[in-house]
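Why does residue order matter? Because the sequence determines the fold. Keep that principle in mind as you read this record.
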Amino acid sequence: MDNYVKKFALVDANNFFVSAERVFNPRLNFRPAVVLSNNDGCVIARSNEAKALGIPMGAPYHEWKPFLKTNKVHVASSNYCLYADLSTRVSNILSRYCPDIEIYSIDESFLCFEGFDFYHLEEYASEIKAFVHRATGIPVSVGIGTSKALAKAANRVAKKFPEKTKGVYFIDTEEKRIKALKWIKVPDVWGIGRQYSKMLEQYSVFTAFDFTLLPDSFVRQKMTITGLRLKHDLMGKPSIQMEEVQDKKGIACTRSFAGMITDYWEVRERISTYAGVCAHKLRKQKSDCNLIYVFIRTNPFREDLPNYSRSFCIRLPFPTNSTIELTKYAVSALNKIFKRGYHYKKAGVMVMGITPSGRKQLNLFHNSNPKHLELHKVVDRINLLNGYDLVRFGGQDLKKKWKMNRNMLSPRYTSKIDEIIKVNARN
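Structure:
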């Protein structure tokens, strides 16, 4: 492959949530450990030791609890404050090594090495890997290729064969590209979902390499232009471009309840709180929304109880990010769909039609209350300095009795002053 063609790297944190727990609790090293989803529902992260025990991703905690206890598996509730902070630290380090970075997810970032023609990229990636681990305690794997899809494939090889690759793998020859793609199964290819996998297998396409042999016309017809770009990317022809971090086009806050709720006022309080979370996220990215969507539903797995699921969407008369105004419309939507006599298990609020706050389309008769802007500035500042939700609005539960079940939550070591590590310095 041409040394003067720009290269892409994918830096992926290994078992990120578990690794974040281990940073401040080294007793978990080499022990099987898992992290649970919201409300301690199911397994969303596993250490290699936990994977070796056969614990599947998505395992329901209440079903696997006896197994986890018998095998002395450490169980942690999801600590998103800690994970987000460590993710930011890793991203900041990566930006020192490469100016062109795309934060793809909380544990993955793409780097574009353009102008690095005289660098030995494998050595450079090994240096990045070592420094990230030394500075943050988070182990990462690095895959490098001439496209984003090949970087993703190389990262998969680096993770699967850590002893041989030392956590860094560079697909820098045609032989390596073909070997890697023949090893990767179609369901494991980045960008190919379950439905496309089933369709491709009907045409005897079982590996990533098989996929690259398909005619362009077939791929475009069956998988649109997005699938065609992926095919070209896997062939080593960069077609999926780097993207700058963009504001979100839709923001949602949805939660499963710890128990089932029948009381209207409890459901209303949840909806009010979720609307407040969405409003805060809008203000954080300096955006407004024009649509608000609310849903409620019962537990579909409880066959002994009547099932009910409804949603309602309201187009707002003006763009806003005010907690007061969004709560008002969210409650109005709830009133359209709430029915007494049902045991509700989940609810959520989503805001859409997001536009920049600085470029509002004003309404002749109704507009967002300008007094709310100054109020929220003060409230957001107080909450930033003193802890999220210290100041809340009347529609929310001031005692916060309903908070998520996170019974095995580790301290927020890096973002909460009263939860930092305490060191005994006495002799």
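The chain has a mean pLDDT of 87.
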